[in-house]
């Protein structure tokens, strides 16, 4: 009982819970679920853009894209390491991912059809990730909060590279401008879905906010993202495919239309355009990497023996 009171005191005081502190089972489980899902998203998220590394239009664009995709691998690693501080086994989490038993972000189940998608992912997808993750820098679990600080710094570079790529394309030919608009049309609604279901359908938000794992609801962050993105679209010279998008002076926010939640749940359930391909690619990469893991473990065991 004292332990529980101490946990509640630390959370209420906005201090951090650390790995060796007592925590309720539900808190631990929720963190492992959310952080693992986040880690899987970073790792699966390497695929849509990775698809364009070999076809980047210049050496500069290729170097930038390579660095970005490598950063995503790094984010996955920090996050898997954070789950390990909670007692999760990383190999088990990967098994769950490749067997389709653990989720990753819906956004990475859409295809990247043109090079403009690389810019739009940087701008809109990393933009949504930042909007969602900046508050997580103040999440109540210490290792997750600290990982998020570094991740957010890198995501902000990712977002700028995307926006800069799009600004360049928008000052090019009409065909390039059309490519950007077409990519924005495809990615806008899926990027709104990244924030999760509407609050009324979000099973975890209430408890996660009480534990201060989440600091805002899904709808609050989605609104913040729309408000942030509209002026950026204006500056870029593109529009969002939403006839209901309009400034509401009374609310001091943009009104916007309802994402297609049927599509969202289908993608979450594994029926999106690229789910099967993404998971299969990950499964194969994991299998192909077995010899590396074996060699690394053998080397570690040898060093331990020698010490
Ligand atoms: N996709 O009750 P809630 C990135 C699930 S990283 C799939 O509202 P919660 C970087 C949810 O898990 C992007 N599933 O859930 C990058 C739950 O199912 P469960 C990832 C979703 O956890 C950029 C159920 O629906 N970011 O982009 C989604 O309170 C570019 C009910 O939902 C993070 O993971 C979805 N969109 O709130 C990389 C951030 N939304 O588990 C490469 C951390 C919901 O009960 C290139 N995560 N579900 O069976 C979070 O902030 C939260 O987990 C939310 C969902 C907001 C995603």
Q: Structural class of the secondary structure composition?
A: mainly alpha
The major sheet is characterized as:
2 strands, antiparallel
Order of adjacent strands in the largest pleated sheet: 1-2
Cα(first) to Cα(last) distance is 43 Å
Low-confidence stretches: none
Percent helix range: 55-70%
How would you describe this structure to a colleague?
With 307 residues, this protein is mainly alpha-helical. It is built from 13 helices and 2 strands. The chain has helices at 2-12, 25-44, 46-50, 59-84, 90-98, 116-133, 142-170, 174-193, 205-210, 218-236, 261-271, 275-288, 290-306; strands at residues 246-248, 253-255. The radius of gyration is 20 Å and the shape is globular. It binds Phenylacetyl coenzyme A. Residues 33-34, 37-38, 41-42, 45, 72, 103, 105-106, 121, 125-126, 129, 132-133, 193-197, 202-205, 208, 214, 218, 268 line the site of Phenylacetyl coenzyme A.
């Amino acid at each position: 009982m004292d332990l529980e009171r101490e946990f509640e005191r630390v959370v209420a005081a906005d201090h951090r819970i650390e790995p060796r502190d007592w925590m309720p089972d539900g808190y631990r489980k929720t963190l492992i679920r959310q952080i693992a899902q986040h880690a899987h998203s970073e790792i699966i998220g390497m695929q849509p853009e990775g698809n364009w590394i070999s076809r980047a239009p210049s050496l500069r664009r290729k170097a930038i894209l390579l660095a970005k995709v490598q950063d995503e691998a790094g984010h996955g690693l920090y996050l898997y390491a954070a789950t390990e501080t909670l007692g999760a086994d990383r190999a088990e989490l990967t098994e769950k991912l490749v067997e389709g038993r653990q989720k990753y972000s819906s956004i990475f189940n859409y295809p990247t059809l043109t090079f403009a998608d690389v810019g739009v992912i940087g701008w809109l997808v990393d933009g949504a990730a930042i909007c969602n993750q900046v508050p997580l820098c103040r999440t109540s679990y210490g290792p997750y909060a600290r990982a998020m600080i570094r991740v957010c710094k890198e995501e902000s570079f990712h977002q700028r590279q995307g926006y800069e790529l799009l600004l360049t394309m928008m000052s090019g030919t009409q065909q390039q401008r059309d490519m950007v608009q077409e990519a924005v049309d495809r990615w806008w609604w899926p990027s709104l879905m990244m924030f999760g279901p509407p609050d009324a359908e979000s099973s975890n938000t209430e408890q996660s906010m009480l534990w201060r794992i989440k600091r805002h609801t899904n709808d609050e962050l989605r609104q913040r993202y729309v408000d942030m993105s509209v002026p950026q679209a204006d500056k870029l010279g593109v529009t969002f495919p939403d006839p209901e998008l309009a400034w509401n002076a009374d609310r001091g926010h943009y009104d916007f239309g309802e994402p297609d939640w049927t599509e969202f749940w289908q993608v979450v359930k594994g029926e999106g355009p690229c789910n099967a391909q993404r998971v299969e690619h990950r499964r194969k990469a994991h299998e192909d990497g077995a010899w590396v893991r074996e060699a690394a473990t053998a080397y570690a065991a040898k060093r331990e023996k020698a010490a």
